[in-house]
Amino acid sequence: MKQYETVIGLEVHVELATKTKIFCGCSTEFGGAPNTHTCPVCTGMPGSLPVLNRKVVEFALKAGIAANCQINQYCKFDRKNYFYPDNPQNYQISQLYLPICHDGWVEIETSAGNKKVRIHEMHMEEDAGKLIHDEWEDCSLVDYNRSGVPLIEIVSEPDMRSSEEVIAYLEKLRCMMQYLGVSDCKLQEGSMRADVNLSVREVGSESFGTRTEMKNLNSFKAIARAIEGERERQIELIEEGRTVIQETRRWDDNKESSHAMRSKEDAKDYRYFPDPDLPPIHISDEWIQKIRESQPELREEKQLRYQSEYELSAYDAGILTESRHLSLLFEEVAKLCGNPKKAANWFMGEVLRLTKDKGLDVEKVSFAPKHLSDLISMVEKKEVSAQNAKKVFEKVFEEDIEPVVYIEEHGLKIVEDTGLLNDTLQKIMDENPGPLEELLGGKEKVFGFFVGKMMRELKGKASPDAVREALVKEVERRKNL
C-alpha cells in the first residue's frame, strides 16, 4: 500500500495593533458600529489619496527582525486588482515585488524534536472589509470598519508535514507577535488568520503534488481538523485515479468538510503593478538598528532568565512564559514579595487552576500584584493558614479584594492563643473518648484524627504546628496523671 506525505505551507495574516489604519487616520478599534470607522480613503472614494502610517513599517520591521528575516531597505507597495464587494477600491494595496522582509525562519518544538520553518517573505498590506450574510433577509451586508486595517502577511515555505507542526508554528508566531506588542493575535476577532496550502505526495518523492488553499479557519482546532480532512480527501482522489484540482476551498468546521470556492488564482491573474499614489520606502541602517535595540525580551530569553535568575525548572519557566501578560504579572508579584519560587508556585497552582475552572482567557486575568504578594507574605509569616489563603485568593482573583483587610474582617487570621487551643482540645477530647483512649494507649494513627478535628473546629485560626504542639503536651500531661 502506498504511503503518503503531507506538504504544508501557511499564509498567516496578522492585524497590527496600531491605533489608526495603514493609509488613513480612522480608528482600528474592534467592535464599533458598522461603517463608523471609515473615511473617503478606506472606503475607496474617487480622488482620495493614501498616506502611509509610519508605525506600520516599524511593527513590520520588529516582526521581521524577530523572525530572522532579511530586510529590503528599498521596498514599495503594489496594487492587487480584483473585484469583490468587501474590497471598495477594486484593488488591494499590498507588496509583491519588493516586500519589506524575506528569507527568515522560526524554530518550533514538536514531539519529534525542534525544527526550523523557513519564512519566504513578510509583507505589509491593507485588510478588506467584512461581509455579513443575513440568512433571514436573504441578503449580504458589508461593513468597511476593517477596510484599511494594517496587516502583515507571513508566507512560509512548504516546510511543515503535519497538523502538529502547523499548530506549533502558529503558536510560535502568535507568542512572538504578542511579546513584540505588534498584535494581540486574537483568532476569534480575526486579528490572526491562517490560510493553509496543502498537497500530498508519495513518501520519497521530491516533486510536490497539486496544492489547495483552505480558508475560513478561525481556531487552532479548526485548522488541525481541516488539515486532516483535506489530506484524506486528496489521498482518496489520488487512490481513485482522479485529479486534485488547484483551487481555494472553504472549510466548514460544523460539518468537518470543505467545499470549493474558486479556482486558485496566480499572481498574474491579479495584474499587480506598482501603486502610483505611494512612494517607495527607504529604510536606513540607523532605523533598523534602533528597532533592534528596542526589541523586548522574547519568550525564549525570558525562559532562560527565569531558570537562572529565579532558579525555576525548565517546565515552570515554560508555562509561566506562554503568555506575555501572565509573565509580566508574575514578575511583578515575585518582585514585591521577594520570593520568586513561592510566587511561581501560586501562579502554577492557584492562578492557572482558577483560570481554567472559570473558562477565562489568560489574557483577561487581572488582579493587583500587591494583593497576591501580601497574601504570600502572610502565609510565610504564618498569619493565615495555607488552606484559608487559597480561599482568600479566589476572592482576590474574582474581585481583586485587599487580602489583609478581608482576613481581618472575616476572622481568618491565625491567633496563637494557647487558651483557645487548650479549650478547643479539651472539648474535642471529651467528645471522642474512644479515640482518646487509643491515643493515650500509644496508637499514633489517632494523632492525625485529633489534629484534623482541631483544624476544622478552629477553622484555620491556628497553625498546624501550634495544634500539634498543644496536642503533644496534653497527651503527655494526661499520661502522667
TrEMBL record:
<dbReference type="InterPro" id="IPR006075">
    <property type="entry name" value="Asn/Gln-tRNA_Trfase_suB/E_cat"/>
</dbReference>
<keyword id="KW-0547">Nucleotide-binding</keyword>
<comment type="function">
    <text>Allows the formation of correctly charged Asn-tRNA(Asn) or Gln-tRNA(Gln) through the transamidation of misacylated Asp-tRNA(Asn) or Glu-tRNA(Gln) in organisms which lack either or both of asparaginyl-tRNA or glutaminyl-tRNA synthetases. The reaction takes place in the presence of glutamine and ATP through an activated phospho-Asp-tRNA(Asn) or phospho-Glu-tRNA(Gln).</text>
</comment>
<dbReference type="InterPro" id="IPR017959">
    <property type="entry name" value="Asn/Gln-tRNA_amidoTrfase_suB/E"/>
</dbReference>
<protein>
    <recommendedName>
        <fullName>Aspartyl/glutamyl-tRNA(Asn/Gln) amidotransferase subunit B</fullName>
        <ecNumber>6.3.5.-</ecNumber>
    </recommendedName>
</protein>
<comment type="similarity">
    <text>Belongs to the GatB/GatE family. GatB subfamily.</text>
</comment>
<dbReference type="GO" id="GO:0050566">
    <property type="term" value="F:asparaginyl-tRNA synthase (glutamine-hydrolyzing) activity"/>
</dbReference>
<dbReference type="Pfam" id="PF02637">
    <property type="entry name" value="GatB_Yqey"/>
</dbReference>
<feature type="domain" description="Asn/Gln amidotransferase">
    <location>
        <begin position="328"/>
        <end position="475"/>
    </location>
</feature>
<keyword id="KW-0067">ATP-binding</keyword>
<keyword id="KW-0648">Protein biosynthesis</keyword>
<comment type="subunit">
    <text>Heterotrimer of A, B and C subunits.</text>
</comment>
<dbReference type="InterPro" id="IPR017958">
    <property type="entry name" value="Gln-tRNA_amidoTrfase_suB_CS"/>
</dbReference>
<dbReference type="GO" id="GO:0005524">
    <property type="term" value="F:ATP binding"/>
</dbReference>
<dbReference type="Pfam" id="PF02934">
    <property type="entry name" value="GatB_N"/>
</dbReference>
<keyword id="KW-0808">Transferase</keyword>
<dbReference type="InterPro" id="IPR023168">
    <property type="entry name" value="GatB_Yqey_C_2"/>
</dbReference>
<dbReference type="InterPro" id="IPR003789">
    <property type="entry name" value="Asn/Gln_tRNA_amidoTrase-B-like"/>
</dbReference>
<dbReference type="InterPro" id="IPR004413">
    <property type="entry name" value="GatB"/>
</dbReference>
<dbReference type="InterPro" id="IPR042114">
    <property type="entry name" value="GatB_C_1"/>
</dbReference>
<dbReference type="GO" id="GO:0016740">
    <property type="term" value="F:transferase activity"/>
</dbReference>
<dbReference type="GO" id="GO:0006412">
    <property type="term" value="P:translation"/>
</dbReference>
<dbReference type="GO" id="GO:0050567">
    <property type="term" value="F:glutaminyl-tRNA synthase (glutamine-hydrolyzing) activity"/>
</dbReference>
<dbReference type="InterPro" id="IPR014746">
    <property type="entry name" value="Gln_synth/guanido_kin_cat_dom"/>
</dbReference>
<dbReference type="InterPro" id="IPR018027">
    <property type="entry name" value="Asn/Gln_amidotransferase"/>
</dbReference>
<keyword id="KW-0436">Ligase</keyword>
<dbReference type="GO" id="GO:0070681">
    <property type="term" value="P:glutaminyl-tRNAGln biosynthesis via transamidation"/>
</dbReference>
